[in-house]
TrEMBL record:
BP terms from Gene Ontology: carboxylic acid biosynthetic process
UniProt-listed PANTHER family: AMINO-ACID AMINOTRANSFERASE, AMINODEOXYCHORISMATE LYASE
Pfam short name (any one): Sulfotransfer_5
A GO MF label: catalytic activity
Organism: Miscanthus lutarioriparius
Protein name: Uncharacterized protein
Family per similarity comment: Belongs to the class-IV pyridoxal-phosphate-dependent aminotransferase family.
Membrane-spanning parts: none
InterPro entries, A to Z: Aminotrans_IV (IPR001544), Aminotransferase-like (IPR036038), BCAT-like_C (IPR043132), BCAT-like_N (IPR043131), Class-IV_PLP-Dep_Aminotrnsfr (IPR050571), P-loop_NTPase (IPR027417)
Length: 569
């Protein structure tokens, strides 16, 4: 007689989720497949035994299910079976340290998440919610453990599943390398028997109040248009859980299901800036978590002051000059509870050191009036003190300084001291942004802005210089920002033995100039080869521009406040 063939073990698909996350519906969905058997929370009794937690059905459950978790892992989860696949619905808190490492090493895993904002309103119907009961922290541990094993699991969101079951399920099947079957979209004949699904006419296993509505369902229910009113007793718990949920949410494949954003993720000008640390308030945060309150003055009214600084060869160029201007702007705007110069310097250094940025980097330093106690315009609502943002990025000079740029003149006028004094370096940049839009529409790199009388003030982002018959000219700083690069370049012009005139300059003088350049920390010294369709000089970079560019390079290589190195920190 031929020996009996040994039963093959199915490929196990582990589904990890928090409670109230459509995990039972999803199990029903997988149970419809012709190649799948399913297990409902096979590690539940182990969890009850190991943790000792109380449940109304504790005794009944322990008497029906094997409470020895490792026995269950070996014989039930990975035991022999008739089908090609075995789906295991796991609740994350049942992932306990006493379990064999096989549980995570073997089979295919995926994670089902749901916004705690949608879990918590219905949670208290069974067990009062807590961080442990929700198990969202444990879901992150599971994700991290699987990444450590070299297999980051697919993540799906219950709210997406409700929105578009077919897109999410077919995407999930693809990620699990199993063919999608359309019968997963509907069900009508399964209930539980000893942890396994069975036809409806057999005995029901498990606490029925959990599954009542799912048993009656025949597919994923459509999401409600409006959320339930949130149970505010769980507000703190929501705050504890959300960072974990959001971390997992970021792992959802963007190309899948209704989560697909209207636009794909844009490429970053410098891809290395994807993973940077940003100083917000009094801490360093990863790029995606670096956020400011909706109550902050900068959100409410552009009520903040800022500086752009550049890092050259381990040094911050003109650090004290930038901080002087920042404090002057804050003083003019009557900010209160402004941090000290040393505190801001420390935040700058910590940010640069943490990011390993010692060269070729730029800092956007913003100081907001801070959070308000309620929305509104009055600085009287600002009772929390100022908020500092140190956004350091890898950033080579932003213009083509070797070939030059084109400018056009904007119709938008630069603010005069009659309206907003341009000597305040504030974040209310709409004036400049409107001019920049004009520049973009004309396919120019930037736009020249005129003052209220029609004289040139600066560009939307830089100060401006011209050369005529060997004399260097730049507008008075009455209608433009008194730029730090402008001041540096004015000194250099004199040091390089050119004559410098600071006066009102009309647009036609710029059109007819021999050379023009712009200045700014971000872009340094940028030759201008065309203004409003007029070629400047012969359309090439002129000799004075080159001389000043070279002199500026020497200065930036040598000057600056050193960033403390690890040994000194
Ligand atoms: C409108 C405007 N002009 C000029 C500049 C250049 O100033 P700085 O040389 O201090 O970087 C800036 C930079 O912040 C600016 O926003």
């Amino acid at each position: 007689m031929a020996p009996e063939a040994e039963a093959e073990s199915p490929v196990v698909i582990h589904a990890w989720s928090a409670p109230r996350s459509l995990s039972t519906s999803l199990m029903y969905s997988f149970a419809q497949r012709d190649d799948m058997e399913v297990l409902d929370e096979p590690l539940y009794a182990n969890f009850l035994r190991a943790t000792g937690v109380d449940r109304p059905y504790r005794q009944e459950l322990l008497s029906k299910m094997d409470p020895d978790g490792n026995q269950v892992v070996k014989e039930v989860i990975f035991g022999p079976g008739d089908k090609k696949y075995r789906y295991c619905k796991h609740i994350s808190k049942q992932h306990l340290p006493n379990l064999s490492s096989d549980l995570m090493k073997k089979g295919k895993h995926f994670i089902l998440i749901r916004n705690p904002l949608n879990i918590l309103p219905s949670f208290d119907k069974v067990v009062p919610p807590s961080f442990m009961e929700l198990g969202i922290g444990e879901l992150v541990s599971i994700y991290s453990e699987l990444c450590g094993l070299g297999s980051p699991p697919p993540v799906i969101d219950a709210d997406d599943l409700q929105q578009d079951p077919e897109a999410v399920l077919s995407g999930l099947c693809e990620d699990l390398s199993i063919p999608f079957q359309s019968q997963m979209l509907n069900w009508n004949c399964f209930l539980f028997l000893d942890g396994k699904l069975a036809p409806r006419n057999l005995m029901v296993y498990g606490p029925p109040w959990w599954y009542g509505s799912v048993h009656k369902s025949s597919g994923f229910s459509k999401p409600c248009q409006y959320p339930l009113t949130f149970p505010f007793a769980f507000y703190d718990l929501l705050e504890q859980c959300l960072p974990f949920y959001n971390m997992l949410k970021r792992q959802i494949r963007k190309t899948r299901g209704p989560q697909q954003p209207p636009l794909p993720d844009p490429p970053l000008p410098v891809p290395a800036n994807k993973n940077i640390l940003v100083w917000v308030g009094d801490e360093l945060l990863p790029r995606d978590s670096a956020k400011i309150s909706v109550f902050d003055s900068v959100v409410q009214g552009g009520d903040a002051v800022w500086e752009g600084l550049r890092i050259y060869d381990g040094k911050v160029f003109k650090l004290d000059e930038h901080l002087d201007r920042l404090f002057d702007s804050a003083k003019a705007m009557a900010f209160r509870n402004v941090p000290t110069r040393d505190w801001i310097k420390d935040a700058i250094f910590k940010t640069l050191i943490a990011n390993g940025m010692f060269d070729n980097a730029h800092i956007r330093l913003s100081l907001t009036r801070g959070k308000k106690v309620t929305s509104g315009m009055s600085p009287g609502f600002n009772l929390y003190g100022c908020a500092l943002i140190v956004l350091a990025e890898w950033k080579p000079p932003v213009y083509d300084n070797s070939h030059g740029i084109k400018l056009v003149t904007a119709t938008t006028r630069r603010n005069s001291p009659n309206s907003i004094d341009s000597k305040i370096h504030h974040n209310n940049l709409i004036n400049n942004i409107l001019a920049k839009i004009e520049g973009n529409l004309a396919q120019a790199e930037d736009a020249i802005m005129l003052d209220k009388d029609g004289f040139v003030s600066e560009t939307n982002a830089t100060n401006i210089f011209m050369v005529k018959r060997g004399i260097v000219l730049t507008p008075h700083a009455d209608y433009c920002l008194p730029g730090i690069t402008r001041a540096t370049v004015m000194d250099l012009v004199v040091k390089e033995n050119f004559v410098l005139h600071e006066r009102r300059i009309s647009l036609s003088e710029f059109h007819a100039a021999d050379e023009v350049w712009t200045t700014g920390t971000m872009g340094e010294i940028t030759p201008v080869v065309m203004i409003d369709g007029r070629e400047i000089g012969d359309g090439e970079i002129g000799p004075v521009t080159r001389q000043i560019q070279n002199a500026y390079k020497v200065l930036t290589a040598g000057l600056g406040v050193p960033i403390p190195r690890i040994a000194e920190v």
